[in-house]
Amino acid sequence: MRRLLLACLSLLAMPAMAQTFPDRTVTIIAAGAAGGPTDTITRIVADSMGRHLGQSVVVESIGGTVLGPQRAAQARPDGYTLLINNIGMAASATLFRRLPYDVPGAFAPLGIVSDAAMTIVTRPDYPARNLAEVMATLKQRGDALNIATAGISSAANLCALLVQHAAGAQATVVAFRGTAPAITELMAGRIDLLCDQATNTVPYIRDNRVVPWGVSSPQRLPGLPNLPTTAEAGFPSIAMSTWHGLYAPAGTPEAIQERLSTALRAALHEDKLRQRYADLLTEVPSDERASIAFHRRFVREEVDRWRPIIQAANQFAD
Fold first, then answer.
1. Topology of the domain covering 118-215
2. Could you give the CA distance from residue 195 to residue 192 in angstroms, rounded to a whole number?
3. pTM score, two decimals?
4. How do beta strands 81-86 and 172-175 pair?
5. Which residues contact 50 (CB under 8 A, 6 or more apart)?
6. pLDDT digits (tens, 9 = 90+) for 91-143
7. Alpha-carbon distance 49 to 262, whole Å?
């Protein structure tokens, strides 16, 4: 009874809280290890959003696919605990047989915060002259070839599923703890293929230590103008970005959601943020993509998109 009374009083207090929000520090949980891509994006966004909210915004990095979102889902829905997670948020709804929260029901989407293209690269001596030949050898040799990933819910793993699905083949998937060891093994010739963020692969592409065959974005990358898109190379189904989104716990008052989403869009227009994104080969999303309405719809579409691909690969985790 006492817990129910406290919950009711908390709900009654929400409208007044929305009028004064924020009046203290906001925490954004980065669903990834410190120093990783999600942590980096979160810190850039937090720095800019703090100026537009008029309050400090701090980052708490929580490694693991489930722990960060779980913490955010269980937080009080008052706008002071948020979450930034990547494309794995949508995929996890199918990848994991048991999740301690519902995707997307446990969260209030506030807007897309970044988009990063994926690049398909191979070891230096891979026997191909274009992406079509890469896909042909994958189909011919199947599990005799291996594809590196950074874990089951990583963008690299999801892209690997797309590549195999497009080739109509099942390669041997080798999971590493992060992209760095995967690229090291690729350069050494012990891994055949990797599909990962341009942010991670471009330095090695420019040094000719790995060979690029396609980029998954609708347009070519400014930094690699000679690298065709996967659509140009004849494989439009290999289209994806490593997107990150900002979330509040479900039940957060709409007025607070709007305040946070507005601050996000303002942050994305800052020259400082845009320059830092450019340095990371990361695209700044449009105002439409950074809106609540788009993000809410997009998460559901991404859950639906990845479900049959993951099920066809029979790739699940407990």
1. D-Maltodextrin-Binding Protein; domain 2 (3.40.190)
2. 11
3. 0.88
4. unpaired
5. 26, 56, 57
6. 999 999 889 999 999 999 999 999 999 999 999 999 999 999 999 999 999 88
7. 9
The Cα 182–Cα 11 span in angstroms is: 48
Q: 2-115+243-313, what's its fold?
A: D-Maltodextrin-Binding Protein; domain 2 (3.40.190)
List of residues 6+ apart from 132 with CB closer than 8 A = 233, 234, 235
Of 160, 208, 171, 210, residue with least CA distance to 187: 210
Query: What is the distance between the alpha carbons of residues 61 and 192, in angstroms, rounded to a whole number?
Result: 32
Show the tokens assigned to 150: 């950074």
Domain layout of the chain by residue ranges: 2-115+243-313, 118-215
Asked if the domains 2-115+243-313 and 118-215 are classified in one and the same CATH topology, the answer is yes
Both tokens of 123, joined, read: 């070891």
* Alpha-carbon gap, residue 88 to 37, rounded angstroms: 13
The length of the chain is 318
Question: What are the C-alpha distances in Å from 268 to residues 34, 47, 54, 82, 262?
Answer: 22, 11, 16, 17, 10
Expressed in angstroms, the distance from the first to the final Cα of the chain is: 35
